[in-house]
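note to self — DONT lose this again. spent like an hour looking for the file last time. sequence + predicted structure for the chain T wanted, 129 res
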Amino acid sequence: MSAQSRQHSKREQQLAERAQSLRANSTWSERVLWEALRSSRLGVAFRRQVPIGSKYIADFLAPEIRLVVEVDGGSHRQRVVADAQRDRDMRRLGYRVLRLDAEVVLRQLPLAVGAVRVAIGASQANGKV
C-alpha cells in the first residue's frame, strides 16, 4: 500500500469515527428531525451522520436520490463562507444539499419536513432515483 493510499485510509477511518461520535451525540434538533426521517417515513431511506467524500460528514443523507439535509444551529451564522464551499463541494460530488435552520426544526417541524419533501420531489424529478 502506498503512502498516499495509507493516508487516504487513515482519513476515511477518522471520518467514520467522527461520524459515529456525532451519531451518539446528536443535537436536539437533529434528533427531532431524525424521528421524522427515519424508517423511510418520507418514502426514501435516510441515514444520519454519513461521511461524504474525503472530508465532510452529512447530517442526513438519502443515498438513493443523493440528497443531503443539513441542520444548521447558531454556530453556522459564523460559517457562511465555509458552508457555501462545503455545499459547492458536495454538489460537485453529485449531491443536492438542503439546509434547515435548527430553530425551524424545533419550532415548526411540519415546515421543515415539508421542505425535505419538496427536496425529495425535486431530486426524484431530476431523475436521481
